[in-house]
Specification:
Layout: E1 2-9, H1 17-35, E2 39-41, H2 55-58, E3 60-61, H3 64-77, E4 80-90, E5 93-101, E6 107-112, H4 122-125, E7 134-137, E8 140-146, H5 153-161, E9 166-171, H6 178-192, E10 195-200, E11 215-217, E12 223-226, E13 232-239, H7 241-249, H8 252-255, H9 258-261
Parallel strand pairs: 1-2, 2-4, 3-4, 8-9, 9-10
Antiparallel strand pairs: 1-13, 4-5, 5-6, 7-8, 10-11, 11-12
Length: 268
């Protein structure tokens, strides 16, 4: 089973949801006309960027506007859409929430970022998620993660151990830590014997320069596609038939001993 994916790496307009909707629409038109992908992924907080201090005003109330917009795009282009993440307001809370749509425009899953990044003050403005990132899309077992999540291998392993074959990552990862971005994603692919498809943003905001370098990595840890720092539509083909053979060759999931992992007690 083979599937084509596209990452839309673009420069997000700081605090301007309407402008960002225009940019997403244009980029999707370009991606569909060039590649006709099965899956398309957007970056983290594509609707607002990291304009955290204004989220009370600019976050999407219950995600209603974003859901309608993204559903129509998925249906129009007949593409499975891992729609990065949006700032979603629910009552007095704002979450960093990934939305996933099938080819018919149906919303099939939401995942809110579990791990908040204190270095960028997320914990002051956002509420962490509580749900799994697992979902099934177009016959593929998938999992979604957001940026800082990739520093928590136990969280991503939990999803792979429960069947995920491709790990989708939406991010706004800064340029100074580009080496970490690449190294962590390659490690997550190798240890989970899964494809990693990671869509980062490009450009800058008033406080950060972002790395770009969206990546597609195979289950052996080979980088099969990588963007540069500028805006780019990155595409690759994933062959899910390879995963079973790789997991059989080095059977890490069979050899796990999870009954011990949480049972060790520190001894003097």
């Amino acid at each position: 089973m083979k599937r084509t994916i596209c990452c839309i790496q673009f420069d997000i307009a700081f605090g301007d949801p309407e402008e960002n909707k225009k940019r997403v629409s244009l980029a999707m038109e370009e991606a569909i006309s060039k590649e006709a992908p099965d899956f398309l992924i957007l970056p983290e907080l594509w609707n607002t960027g990291y304009d955290l201090t204004r989220l009370e005003v600019i976050a999407d109330e219950e995600g209603i506007d974003s859901k309608a917009f993204l559903s129509e795009l998925a249906r129009k282009h007949s593409v499975n859409l891992i729609a990065g993440s949006i700032a979603k307001k629910s009552g007095h809370e704002v979450t960093n929430t990934m939305l996933i749509f099938d080819r018919e425009g149906n919303l099939i899953h939401e995942y809110s970022k579990l791990h908040l990044f204190k270095l960028m003050d997320e914990h002051h403005y956002l509420t962490g998620g509580r749900e799994s990132g697992l979902f099934m899309l177009d016959g593929v077992h998938c999992a979604g993660f957001i940026c800082y999540d990739i520093r928590f291998p136990e969280w991503m392993r939990e999803h792979a151990a429960n069947g995920a074959e491709v790990l989708f990552v939406a991010a706004e990862w800064p340029l100074p830590r580009l080496h970490h971005w690449r190294s962590l994603l390659i490690a997550r692919a190798i240890e989970n014997q899964a494809y990693v498809v990671a869509c980062n943003r490009s450009g800058s905001d008033p406080n950060n320069q972002f790395a770009g370098h969206s990546l597609v990595i195979d289950p052996w840890g080979n980088v099969i596609a990588e963007a540069g720092e500028s805006e780019e539509i990155l595409s690759a083909e994933l062959d899910f038939n390879e995963i079973a053979g790789i997991r059989k060759q080095i059977p890490v999931f069979q050899d796990r001993r999870p009954e011990f992992y949480q049972s060790f007690v520190k001894r003097d």
